[in-house]
Amino acid sequence: MIVDGEHTFPGPRQTVWDLLQDPEVLAKAMPGARKLTLTGDGTYAGVIRIGVGPVTAAEWTLNVALRDRVPPESYTMQVDSKGALGFTRGNATVNLDEVEGGTRMRYHADLSVGGKVAGVGQRLLDQVAKMLTKQGLDALNKELESRLRDGGGPGDQAR
Amino acid sequence: MAQPVEISLSVNGVRQGGAVEPRLLLSDFLRHELGLTGTHVGCEHGVCGACTVLMDGEAVRSCLVFAVQADGAEVVTVEGLDSGGELHPLQEAFRDAHGLQCGFCTPGILMSMIPFLRDNPRPDEPQIREALSGNLCRCTGYQNIVESVRLAAERMGGGPSPGGA
Amino acid sequence: MSRTYVGTSPVRNEDRRLLTGQALFVDDVQLPGMLHAAFVRSDHAHALIRGIDASAALAREGVVAVITAEDLGDYWQPGPLLVPPPPIDGIVFNQASQVPLAKDRVRHVGEPVVMVIAESRYLAEDALTDVFVDYEPLDPVVDLEAALAEDAPVIHPQLGTNLAAHVVQRHGDYEAAKTDAHLVINRRFHYDRGAAAAMENRCVAARWDPRAEELTIWDTTQAPIPIRNGLARMLGLLESRVRVVAPFVGGGFGPKIMMFYPEEVLVPWAALRLGRPVKWTEDRQENFFATTQERSQIHDAEIAFSADGKILGIRDFFFHDTGAYDPYGLTIPINSQCTLLGPYDVPAYHSEFRAVFTNRTTVTPVRGAGRQHGVFVMERLLDIAARELGLDPSEIRRRNYLRKDEFPHTFQILFQDFAPLYYDSGNYAPALEAALDIVGRDTFRAEQARARAEGRFIGLGVVSYVEGTGIGPYEGARVTIEPSGQVRVATGLGTQGQGHYTAFAQIVAEVLDVDVDRVHVVTGDTREFGWGTGTFASRGAVVAGSACHEAAVAVRKKVIETGARVLGVPADEVELEDGAVRVRGDHARSMGLGQLAGHANPLRGAVVPGTEPGLEATAYFGPDHGSTASGVHAMVVEVDAETAMVKILRYIVVHDCGKLINPVIVAGQVQGGVAHGIGNAFYEQLVYDEGGQLQNASFMDYLLPTALDVPSVEMAHRETTAPLNPLGLKGVGEAGCIPTGAAFAQAVEDALPHLALEIREIPLSPNRLFELLRDAGPADRAPAAELGGPTAAAAAD
Ligand code: FES
Ligand code: FES
What we know:
The complex is a heterotrimer.
Chain A: E1 2-9, H1 13-20, H2 23-29, E2 33-40, E3 43-52, E4 55-70, E5 74-83, E6 86-99, E7 102-114, H3 116-149
Antiparallel strand pairs in A: 1-7, 2-3, 3-4, 4-5, 5-6, 6-7
Helix pairs in contact in A: 1-3, 2-3
Chain B: E1 5-11, E2 14-20, H1 26-33, E3 52-55, E4 58-61, E5 74-76, H2 89-96, H3 106-119, H4 125-132, H5 143-158
Parallel strand pairs in B: 1-5
Antiparallel strand pairs in B: 1-2, 3-4, 3-5
Helix pairs in contact in B: 2-5
Chain C: H1 15-19, E1 35-41, E2 47-53, H2 55-59, E3 63-67, E4 92-93, E5 105-106, E6 112-118, H3 121-128, E7 132-137, E8 163-171, H4 174-179, E9 183-191, E10 203-209, E11 214-219, H5 224-235, E12 242-245, H6 262-274, E13 278-281, H7 284-290, E14 297-305, E15 311-323, H8 331-339, E16 349-357, H9 371-389, H10 393-398, E17 409-414, E18 420-423, H11 429-439, H12 444-453, E19 457-469, E20 475-481, E21 487-491, H13 500-512, E22 519-522, H14 540-567, E23 574-577, E24 580-583, E25 586-592, H15 593-599, E26 615-621, E27 627-639, E28 646-656, H16 663-683, E29 713-718, H17 740-751, E30 761-762, H18 766-775, H19 792-795
The complex binds FE2/S2 (inorganic) cluster (FES) (2 copies).
One FE2/S2 (inorganic) cluster (FES) binds near residues 43, 46 and 50 of chain B.
């Protein structure tokens, strides 16, 4: 499954970069995230809860590793997630460019999805991926706005 | 786990009840709690129609209904169709027109056709096929099922359907 | 008057139970203290198992046991090879059959890894989510050709290759035949996977009764006796202590054969181990991943013709996808190889296949069992050639049929029953003419032209096939007249809707001259009858039906002998009529069969030495060769050239399955087969991605044909009786779905003569057909020829 697109954040590139490296922010932005913790340099582990169409919502363990980091321009993200209903694995690349009015993020993810969720949720996967992406970006936007308002401090009002 | 819920309903004219888990499907309640195994389960996702029963006179897929939702309802299953060993005319028509092979889909089809024929006593073939299109059968190719329904309509007093079979 | 039942259609004996909800299916078995099993299955097509943590599942309330491969000890064994490969010169066959639970490696999505047993099905499924399996994903093998590349990942490391088999069969000399050819055609054809999709999923229940020392297993199997024999051996029990019951089974279509599926092997083991009854019922999603499938093959075929359109020879190389394991041997590709020849005179044939392991669900026969691939390839080659030669598709077939005086006909290649491919009888050309008469030989092309003038695209497909049916080794039956005068028949077959309860009763009722509803047939219970093989390859009615006939004839002989003794007259003066024996010419001296049965089982006195008590006999039937059914299917379609939707306007079957026991049941088998064939041709395709993940594992996405999608079938029967069994029977179970794809392809092309459209793949979903139509250029070809008339030889028939 390919998920790609772009989004423009209304803020400076460095702030956006910082935001994207912050596990607490990511935990908030990731729809259904139960928890997400930094486990090493650029590696995170967590649990999310997501359902896809006829596949009832279930918990998925999530491991994310950020690699090839070129602050504040680009990084790749390795995703490895599994649960009782299947797995999702793959890589995403993220690029940040300074543009008129803010920072443009371009993302491209190539994910393989397996197990029950692939077999019975296929029709809906693209929709769900789009929806989750949108929810995530909206949450990041909000977080960014509040940071800019508060003078760019770390995301300390988590939950 | 959620607390069991007390339910009471009529099944084939007999009062039944008990405490059930909220997530228990009506199909499982009928088959496993009441032992009415004539209702079959072919997909558990609402497509095949094998699990069809009547709830307050209308055909429902019992795999899509929780037992608790049937609280207070009148349910009729395939076991409630014949009267004292005398086959219902619909059952008889299926036998006479070879409308079943393995018979797994049959209870669901019978229970779908009961309200259909009540509301459409003189159906033509396209109407019958349309009405059957929510029930899957892998054995028969539907031809004799269509014929069985037509025959039943004729015998049940609807008279020959417009335009024949 | 004596009763005639064979060839008539009484209502079915089994229907009352089925219509009132009283028929027992396996999932209806409910026993006190019963436990329920559920399975953790692989999410990966190909992966190593690094570890399994089941502790949380075991700790859950209501969970009784959590079983991994390690826990099975010596019981963990690969399943048996169900059908050994035939002794073909130079054959390569690499065996790798399925295992009860994956141990260190998973080989397809849905392969069972852990069995959880709990107090209820709901609890067992809850606990599945607690089991953690640590996988190390490996590159999956999905593409048939890539699977054989040097550097391809190997699915079964002990074999060192993904090649499951390599077989070459030939007769005549294709290369020599080709040198004289006027026309040579070479094409690649694809056939893809579909599901058997019986409405009833698989189910196994088992109970160990310590007092009777008997293990009873209820199993949705087509072959209870082989299952009993195999499980007794694996569990170390006497065969007589294991009873396998296949009660009513909700459709078989192949995958419910004696597979020794993991669940089938594990549930009885668990019932023995835990001392409590255990049941497992497959759900529809599991069925899509874990019940065997069929049909992916790729053929590179070449055919050579003389100038007058006679086949000189055929060469075919093909790849056959056997999936993750190959327990069923080579039945499918050998069927493809043999059935390709069809009803035609093919002087030279070179056929070579490679069976390939892939990381997809295991492949075993599904209704048709490889035959439709062969028919598709052959019929498409003929269609393409007809176009090149300017012949009507029916005319090229007419020119190549085996003639009526060419039977029996033997080819020098081996069939799935290990004997040279043998056509016992047949008469092909008249079936084609009969089909064309029903279509409207003189009117169809004019109608087609009229429709086209109105902007509607109508097309006709007419194809032929033969089907080897009714193969050995044998079946048996026991016929008993009870003191009530009612008759009991027991056979070892399983039955899945084919009407055996009625068809066998008809055969026996006719021989014993009793009412058919007084004949009670039991099938599928090893305690009732313990010898036999099973229902597959369109053999049930032929082989077991013949055994029933032989047993009934033997009982009739006993009836006459006992009657002679009791009535005090010589045997040749005794006649059996209307359920009684009587003295010829003196009908007052008679005795009903029930009373006679009492005399045959005396309470005092002595049974005459050398005789047996009772009016009972057991007989077996094993044909030397199968019997060859054949037929012609014609399909009229209307294609919407914009949307590529195809509507089937008419479907015509002219079928020769020898003598018909029950014409209504036979028609039903054909109608059902046609629907299955239409599904396979147009709606049904199991779509796998390149990672080996099935994309459409539900009835929401995998579309079975509904009552709106299949037409009524117009049928005509021809009866060329089979010489090799007493009733002249041929099998019918699979015929309906064998030529459907080929007929569909020809009809769609015929509807769109203005397009250079050549269909070389099945299934052909609306989407795929849309792409083909979009990409097809304009045709340069002559308008369709007239359908033409029969040759003198066929007309004379
Ligand atoms: S089981 Fe309910 S619709 Fe299939
Ligand atoms: S009769 Fe077998 S599924 Fe309908």
